[in-house]
Amino acid sequence: MNQETSLLLDSPNRTWSFEKTTPFPATNGCYRSRIYTSNININPLVAACDQILSLAIALKTTEFPDNNTQFLQDLSHEIRSFEHHAQIANYQSNIIIAARYALCCLLDETIASTQWGQTNNWDEKNLLTLFHNENYGGARFFSIIDRSLENITANLHLIELLYLCLNLGFVGKYQNIEHGQSELVAITNRLYQIIGQHNHLNRKNLLIHEPILEPQQNQEAPTTTSTIKPKKLFGIAIAAAIVISGLIYFGINLKLNNTSKQIHTLLEQIHKNKSENLI
Q1: Taking each helix axis from N to C terminus, what angle separates 180-198 and 156-167, rounded to the nearest 10 degrees?
Q2: CA dihedral 185, 147, 175, 262 (to 10 degrees)
Q3: Angstrom distance (rounded) from CA 168 to CA 146
């Protein structure tokens, strides 16, 4: 575990907050996403990584490159872009590190679950390895959830991001354990309730989806907790990537920008329809 992760999780007296007194270390140069600039203004932390969330959706069905090294570099550029914009938004370093860890987990698991990821041994050299010197975050992701809930008001933006990662299909350590699906559903629903309760005074800023229902007994549990179904919502448009010289370049701006707009529209509609039920 590197020093950043240790500071994040192993100090019992540390309180996470969004105070501006602990800035994120300055990055070398200005990192701007090669995908698009987000138009989501509900949660600045989510806005800073909107392109990564959209990418996590697209990667479930897109083609993959032949050059693993270049692909990893392109993904790491998007992570650096998130860091840069989160720093501009004055988030505390621990919040940025926690969010970065969660985003690496989401992308790594999404890629590793594909045939390409398994064939190319993505788990051996992935984003977590690059940024946190770990190759698996399926357990620590949920430790971050637990720590963030120690100060819900201060960490609400991070909690919303963690919730979205679960809705986009992150499973982590619950993939292969007994009753793991039910436990994951309980965690996701708990976050839903917490976010709703802490946003009831300003419901228009609620960046969440429908709660996930508990699987009934004697019925096969769904294979994913995601309430966003990419094929139904976005169709083939986000499934196709532009492949240049055997690489996935982030010249898929238009496709993923359209994805972001649809996500934004969906979120606004959810806020409008469901805010009255959250007290």
Answers
A1: 140
A2: 60
A3: 19
pLDDT tens-place values along the chain, 279 residues long: 444 444 444 444 444 333 333 444 555 555 454 444 444 456 899 989 988 988 888 888 777 877 888 889 989 999 999 999 999 999 999 999 999 999 999 999 999 999 999 999 898 889 999 999 998 999 999 999 999 999 999 999 999 999 999 988 999 999 988 888 899 999 999 998 888 888 754 444 444 444 444 444 444 444 433 333 333 323 322 332 222 122 222 322 334 445 555 545 544 544 454 455 544
Which run of H or of E encompasses 55? Answer: helix 50-58
Q: Is 20 exposed, middle or buried (0-12, 13-18, 19+ CB in 10 A)?
A: exposed
Determine whether 202 is exposed, middle or buried from the number of CB atoms within 10 Å of its CB (0-12, 13-18, 19+): exposed
Could you tell me the pTM of the whole model?
0.66
Count of H-run helices and E-run strands, the chain: 12, 2
CATH fold of 42-277 reads 1.25.40
The helix (H) or strand (E) run that includes residue 248 is strand 247-248
User: Tell me, what amino acid is at 218?
Assistant: N
